[in-house]
Amino acid sequence: MINVVLLGVVYILMGVGFAFILNLLGIFNLAHGAIFMSAAYGCYLLVVKLGLPGFVAFPLTVLAAAAFGVLVERFLFRPMKADFNRTMMVCIALSTILVTTFNRFLGTRALSIPPFLAGTTGIGPYKVQTDRILAFAIGVVILVAIILFVDRSRWGAQMQAVTQNREGAALQGIRFGRVAAIACAVGFGLAAIGGVFMGSLYNLTPFIGDVTLIKVLMLVILAGLGSFNGIFYVGALLGVLYGALPVVLNGAVVDALASIMVLALLVIRPRGFFGHE
Amino acid sequence: MILGLVLLVLALGLLPLVAACGGEEETTTTAPPATTATTAGPTTTAGPTTTAAPASTDTTAPAAMETLRIGAILSLSDWYSVVDAADKVDLEYTAQMINDDGGIQVQGKNYKIELVIEDGKSSLDGNTAAATKLVLDEKLPFVVGPGAFFNLATTPIFEQNKVLHVANYNGLNPAEMNKDTRYAFLGLDPITQANAELKSLMLYYPDVKTVCLATEDATYPAFEPHFKALVERLGLTLSGDPVLFATNAEDYNPVASKIKAQNPDAVWMPVGIDPSYFGILTGLRTLGYEGPVTFPIDAPSVTGALGDAATGIVGVLSKQVTDPHISAPMKRLLEMGDVNRHVFGLAPNALYLLAHAIEAADSLDPTAVRDKWETLTSLPTLYGDGFPSGSQLFGLTNHAWAHPIPVALINNGQVEYKPWIIPDVTP
């Protein structure tokens, strides 16, 4: 059960981060998986090579990823003026550079971020790694914070305004550049949170982001482009799919089943579960 | 503004950190002196074996050696580069080792190996292109690699052009190697590796009677009959249906749950990748499963990733200089670079075998080398004395080779190296 909810939380974090950038900037950030992977390696380096405690390395990594997001928005995304082809190429190039860099220097071994909390917790024979419970709790807190940020904060309101009507928002004095930078910072930061969770609970390889990116794309498409709420529901659904189905199905059958679901949905409901015109 | 600058410094700070902490395969040293040849008998376990590189009796390289260009296909980009980028470093070291010992001696002349390495790009298309370039553009008579199922793409090209090719290992697909692929050789019969895992398990955990077979799903159809036959030959019983997993999964706890549900005496994971092995093992231990688990390992990776949770592991194929049983050529190879690097030792072993076969044939004609190689029943490998295996399996005599396999037991994060095991010959 904890696997299901934890995977669900990670997918939702990743999906929300991806959706922030997609909805506000219109950019299909194919580098999202690479950011996820880089953050996991970054946290690993801070903990293992520099000896920082996990609770220090975690926020540092997230802040670094958010800052990187601001830089990417300013120097790579903004000059492309939301041109689909050019931004896609930028994302692919960014992803390739990051994956190749980590593969070149750290790729020959599967690594793991040491657990923030060692040991297991449970009742009787039913045990779960304490780290997982912690990751789940932190993930839920962050998701609640994100919801409050979007719904209650001034910046969140500006982001919603830009999502609904960029020109209208501009006429109201909302500075698109600043909102875009915030969206990238939040998007990259959320990818980093997901990466650190996965890197501490599972293992690191330079290609972990590829797998996760595919799931995020599925999530966003299933939820419906432009839908934040849908991401929460579909993230939970994917958590069940990938956390529980492997118990009864073998290997890649789970991936195939998820892919069939996406294909079927695209045929029956092209806008996704919660998408709108 | 100040906050922005702080964030920017943090972001930029991570990149040099990556560079500073990595680069484990960078160092280069001169090879130690060559060793002399001895042989290991066909016993259950082998002690240290020493085997010489070609022309090892003459440790001084002639003043002017001719060059023999040998092709190699390794996937240096994309997903399979995790293995092949590391193997490339050791392939070059192996060529250097052979060259330092006087190169390959053919008809009184010494040939220095010059590697022509092409990137297979972790895809069938990429491997096809690489093989085509080596054969048609470079016109090379001998090629090492590729590994895994990429041989599906390259074997037809090599066979049509009568290029002798030595695969690092393969996925047992008949299209990779069959009775008609007379120029195809294989550096490691994969069934012998699986055999070594089970034999080691039985040797160090004699009470084990039932094993749960947990393996990667994509390659399983080709391996299935051979794995089942192997279990039967060794007198073990499978505890239930094989548990198959995808190597791109994130969470392996469901797989661990399925394994534990079979309540086996031990768990056998013959094919997979480190994240799968580590994820399953962690899941098993969290669920309270305490039986031994056997799989191919790199000991520092296991202890580094799992720490004290690395326990009850019977690992094979870990190559470390601290292993007192390590073969002389492998020790020498390890000492040519950072001794703590992850040595996969697949393509390097294929090159080592090829060099000795060429020398045994005393010819640079691939057909003559093939004909001679088919008569050989022993060849030096980086792991000690190699022997043919799988003649019936592959439909070719003396084309697939096997060698002693390193064994290590890991308990509570501590590694104990055991005598290398000589696997049974695959029928």
Folded structure, characterized:
The complex is a heterodimer of chains A (277) and B (427). Chain A has 277 residues and is mainly α. Chain A has a single domain (2-268), classed as ABC transporter involved in vitamin B12 uptake, BtuC (Orthogonal Bundle), CATH 1.10.3470. Helices cover 75% and strands 3% of the residues of chain A. Chain A is built from 11 helices and 2 strands; from the N terminus they run H-H-H-H-E-E-H-H-H-H-H-H-H. Chain A has helices spanning 2-25, 32-49, 54-77, 84-106, 130-152, 154-164, 166-171, 176-201, 208-223, 229-248, 253-268, and strands spanning 120-123, 126-129. In chain A, a hairpin with a 2-residue loop joins strand 1 (120-123) and strand 2 (126-129). In chain A, helix 5 (130-152) packs across helix 6. The longest helix of chain A has 26 residues, at 176-201. Chain A is globular and about 60 Å long. Chain B is of the alpha/beta class and 427 residues long. Chain B has 2 domains: 49-189 and 326-403, Rossmann fold (3-Layer(aba) Sandwich), CATH 3.40.50.2300; 191-323 and 408-421, Response regulator (Rossmann fold, 3-Layer(aba) Sandwich), CATH 3.40.50.2300. In chain B, 37% of the residues lie in helices and 19% in strands. Chain B contains 13 helices and 18 strands. In chain B, the strands form 3 sheets. In chain B, strands 1, 8, 9, 10, 11, 12, 13, 17 and 18 form a 9-stranded mixed sheet that branches. A 6-stranded mixed sheet of chain B has the order 3-4-2-5-6-7, with helices on both faces. In chain B, strands 14-15-16 form a 3-stranded antiparallel sheet. Residues 1-51 and 56-61 of chain B have low confidence and may be disordered. The chains are: A mainly alpha (277), B alpha/beta (427). The interface between A and B is large, with 62 and 60 residues.
